[in-house]
Amino acid sequence: MNRGNGWLTKGHRKKGDVWLHHFYVTRDSDGKRVETTRTIGLVSKFSKESGVWQEIQRSQQAGATGRLTVSALADAYRRAELPFKSRSTQDLHQHELDRYILPRWGTTYVDEVRVLEVKKWLIAIAAENDFTTESVQKTKHVFSRLFTFGSENELIAANLNPVKACNIKGVGRKSTNKKIVVPPEIEWKIAMSLSIMHRTLVLLAAGTGMRMSELLGLRWGDIDFANKKITLNQTWVYGRIENGKTEESREPVVLGERTTEFLREWHRQTPYAGKSDWVFASNKLRGKRPISGCQFVKDYVRPRFVEHGLIDADYAGRAGLHAFRHSLATVLIVEEKVDPKTAQGILRHTDAGLTMNIYTHAQDPAKRAALERFESRLVQ
Predict the structure, then answer these.
(1) In terms of domains, do 188 and 329 share one?
(2) For residue range 50-90, what is the model confidence (pLDDT) as tens digits?
(3) Does this model's pTM top 0.85?
(4) CA-based, 20 to 30 A from 198: which of 44, 53, 101, 245?
(5) Is the domain of 55 the same as that of 140?
(6) Could you list the residue range(s) of the whole structural domain that residue 52 is in?
(7) Which residues of 5-28 are buried (b: 16+ CB within 10 A; e: fewer)?
(8) What are 35-55's pLDDT values in tens digits?
């Protein structure tokens, strides 16, 4: 039976007879109309053709044509999911959608997106824009998330994600960014060469692995000195207050004894010590905003990385406070032999690769003990 959106036949599979939906799509490589087929479900589940067509409409959010375009899927994603992500993530996804994805794929039906065509497109935009492999991965991730969102919300067929299946290994130029690992002994030397506020900032970054946005968004009221914990109530990103990136990233930060003492000393000396004051407040702006993270890295961190031979003077790649986060992970796991689950808890990662057992939970005493061992090398 042909309803203008293709036709149905029956096929045989190991689990039994199935309904097959046949329809034509336009092939990007040569513009020809070619037939394609997808499995809808078992005949035992849909006894009548009318039920099969209803399933096709339901799974693809049927409109006038019975199928959903990438642009329509993106509109649904922007309304239903994107507003609940951090502002920086919203900006990234909006940019990728408007600049790269929708100009090429907006009018394409989701079931016409093909793996090889996606790969050709990614190769093309990588060459045109001199993308690194990381940049290509970001574009792929956003495009893939559209399909995952559609499947999760039953807007498109379950497990329909040709972007995820696209292998982009080798696409894009190699990044010039170095993987910088700063030994704790060097971190201590860097910190002690700075003024007390900047010293505290470096030691807190080194001793907890906190992200730049979390450090700058810290207020004195967020710190529980008695229990040696920090509650991350907000972050500071692009000059505005935001929430953390993920639920895991908003977990309390456990402090070691010595890092806590450095924070106490800075609290005693800062002119901005109220509960609502920024921990790393800008003197230039009379405490109304945190210091500039970019300027701090440019003026204090990078020159000391050069001084200690971590980067070359002409190195143009990334080299900031995030290096301390990588360093903490490396030292804890590789040198201190901390179990990955405890390290995951300290760094507040969502990466399942660090999780040995999803039913175990890193406890605060284990986190603190690991940090105390690290601090014995950091603070001399």
Answers:
(1) yes
(2) 888 877 766 554 433 447 899 999 999 999 999 888 788 89
(3) no
(4) 245
(5) no
(6) 1-59
(7) bbebeeeeeeeeebbbbebebeeb
(8) 888 788 888 888 888 888 877
